[in-house]
Amino acid sequence: MRLLPVACVALLAASASARASAPAQAPVFATRVETVLIDAFVTTETGGDLPGLTAGDFVLKDNGVVKPFELVPVESVPIRVILVFDTSNSMKGEKLERLRAAADSFLNQLRPQDEAGLVSFSDEVALKAPLTNDLSQVRSGLHSLKAQGATSVYDAIFTALITPRSALRTLLIVFSDGEDNMSWIREPQLRSAVERSNALIHVVTARGAEFQPSFQRPPLPDTPHMKALRDLARITGGSLIEVNAPDRIETAFVQIVRQMKSRYLLRYTPEVDPTPGWHVLELKLRSRKGRIRGRTGFWVESRP
Amino acid sequence: MRALLAFLLVASAGTAAAQSMTARETAYWDVVTRYATGNRKDAVATIGGWSEKDLDRILKSVQGLEKAARRCEACEDRARFDALPLRAAILLHAERDRMDRVARMQENGGAAECAISANGRMSADLLGPAALQPGGARFASRFYAVFAQHLRSALCFLTSRNWAEAGLKLAPRDAMLLFVDGLASETIGVTGFVEPTLRSERDWRGRQTAGYENLDPKREFSRAIDGFEKALAVDPHLSEARLRLGRVLSRMGRGPEARVSLKQAVEETSGASRYLAHLFLGQCLEDDGDLDGAIGQYSAAMALRPDSQIGAVALAHAHSLRGRSETAREVLEKMLPVAGRRQAADPYWSYAMGSPEDAEALIEDLRRETLR
Questions:
Q1: How confident is residue B112, by pLDDT bands cut at 50, 70 and 90?
Q2: Which phi and psi (to 5°) does residue A167 adopt?
Q3: At what angle do helices B239-251 and B217-234 cross, to 10 degrees?
Q4: Given this model, what pLDDT does residue B111 score?
Q5: By a Cβ cutoff of 8 Å, what residues of chain B touch chain A?
Q6: Confidence of residue B211 (pLDDT cuts 50, 70, 90)
Q7: For residue B91, is it within any domain?
Q8: Nearest Cα to B133, choosing from B75, B64, B167, B85?
Q9: Which of A7, A125, A149 shows the shortest C-beta gap to B325?
Q10: Do residues A81 and A117 touch, judged by C-beta distance below 8 A?
């Protein structure tokens, strides 16, 4: 039996070639060259940044066994971000305007080597801009957004996970103001796709009274849908930020930018022929006090 | 033909009816006749100016005529009653009720507006008397079924079910009403929300309060299964009931029964229903681990609607589970450029809640048949 880790395992060669501006290498499903990239979000107990950590400050375990890893300079790895935005009917008016403005500010923070794309969703999932470093295409996509229809957030996330061609880690920033009510993909299926992907997912949700269609019942503290989105973000190491008013959307995006800038990036190369199945990753601080968050695992497929 | 005769009777025997009519009643029947003879817009606008009190008086006079008509089969009172254009009146009031509801929805930023207006009540109250007229019972059950579907598409799911159940009291074995009753329950189960309903308790100002019913999707799905099965028992050719029965059985985790129903739906249906049957059967097979079977069904759905987004997502997902990431990507890449340029909406999008356009088409059919 030949073991073939899927796309959740990033290629060392791919990230290295990106740093050197060489052409991106196609995925090669051979166990010896594959690596797992882990974004580690570290803060003090009170939420402040914790800069200057070295590899020696981290402990990484794969299925309970301590493993060696490298710390990669964050600035050397381009960010490939796909904005996955809700354009359902409830987004009409100020909400959509605020979302556009927040996204525009976010794009201003990207560096020349970074790439961005835009996927919108209501009933339909639409690719408004493919991954590109020509950000004017993304801005043009933002201006073309119109609010109408229902909410297919799961289908949109699935599409954004599957369509990128490179095995480089993709950042998904998902914004949604309502419950999924139109997707084909169900939550367990999406969770499985997320586990098998190589994406980092941050979710911004808006559930204040002014975000809710009034025919829906008032939101509960954490609906199954919210719990699902929170969990999807958590699996990848990302976070869910909840805002309660349109003017808070930009703040949430600023928070994501801050997290991305202050994160640490670990590169872990599993042994040859790793055990098939879900590999639980544990990330801890060795000698420093603080909070740490990273992807919770990676998947190794077994194939005949 | 009988409806036409009824109008002719009103026109020619108007003198007999007019003898006992007040001026206000005469004015009322004049509005209804204008509606029936094609001046819809004008009639609907005019009836909007009638007060609830006026409409109550008209209703009482109709009920009086109904009472008199019930006493004999072949007397003048019966002929006079049968000549009343009650079906046109029902459609007129229902149309005004819908118009007012849409306006209130727009005022409320698209929120569902399910309260029945005076015109809505009038149309419902006239259904009892109308059922006594020749062909009236058939019309009444159709009206209940059509308006229940309209209310569902207007996000008034409980009201839709209440409407279907009111119809079933009149026609307990009407396949369409049984189906629509199941449809409302399926919608409530899928969406997990209903419009607020009035409660018996009152607030500190003495106003009736409104609240949300506690929902249990499984209970709703069981009700839906019951409705669809009863509908199919009456009319085994009601293929949409077969499709929906399969879908709900699948949601309830009753895979083997769901597959039987959905395979039958694939055979018996055409167009949008067949497309959906392929999709739903594919999902059943996928849940059962038969990925190749699922891919076959999703591909068949895509063959029927090549620009289908749902079909593409389903197919891509099945391919990705099969380990064919590149094929999955290609399927989605073909789908994405079609967004915003689809010839028609995907039937899956209106499956759960219906669409106002489909509901309007049903109402138009009923209107055309009734008023021709």
A1: confident
A2: -85, 0
A3: 150
A4: 75
A5: 108-112, 155, 191, 193, 195, 212, 279, 309-310, 313-314, 316-317, 320, 323, 325, 328-329, 332-333, 335-337, 339-340, 342, 345-346, 348-349, 352
A6: low
A7: yes
A8: B85
A9: A7
A10: yes
Contacts with B328 from chain A: Cβ below 8 Å: 162
Closest CA to B155 of B189, B113, B116: B113
Q: How far is A214 from chain B (nearest CA, A)?
A: 5
Query: Which pLDDT score, from 0 to 100, does residue A68 have?
Result: 96
Both tokens of A190, joined, read: 């999406």
For B304, B341, B343, the CA distances from B307, given in Å and listed in that order, are 9, 9, 8
- Asked, for residue B349, whether it belongs to a domain, the answer is no
Q: Residue A217 pLDDT > 60, yes or no?
A: no
Residues A140 and A196 in one domain: yes
Which structure tokens are listed for A155?
């289908």
Closest alpha carbon to A14 in A231, A210, A149, A169 = A169
Q: Average model confidence (pLDDT) for chain A?
A: 85
Q: What residues are paired with A83 via a beta bridge?
A: A118, A173
Examine the domain organization and report whether A297 and A246 are in the same domain. Answer: no
CA distance A269 to A258: 27
Residue B68 placed within a domain: yes
Whether residue A156 is found in the same domain as residue A7: no
Please give the tally of structural domains in chain A. 2
Do A126 and A195 fall within a single domain?
yes
Q: Return the CATH number at A90.
A: 3.40.50.410
Q: Which two tokens stand for residue B97?
A: 């009720």
Domain that includes residue B86, residue range? 1-134
CA neighbor of A228 nearest in space, from A180, A283, A184, A169:
A180
pLDDT value at residue B205: 59
Strand partners, A171: A81, A200
Give a yes or no: residue B163 inside a domain: no
- Residue A166 domain boundaries: 78-260
State whether A277 and A159 are in the same domain.
Answer: no
Mutate to test the interface with B, among A8, A215, A217, A223 (most CBs of B within 10 A): A215
> How many domains is chain B built from?
1
Buried b (16+ CB within 10 A) or exposed e, B327-340: bbbebbbebbebbe
> Could you report the predicted ipTM of this complex, rounded to two decimals?
0.85
Position B105 confidence tier, pLDDT thresholds 50, 70, 90 = confident
Q: Which of B193, B186, B216 is nearest to B351 (CA)?
A: B186
Residue with tokens 């026609």: B171
> A197, A167, A199, A170: which is closest to A24 by C-alpha?
A167
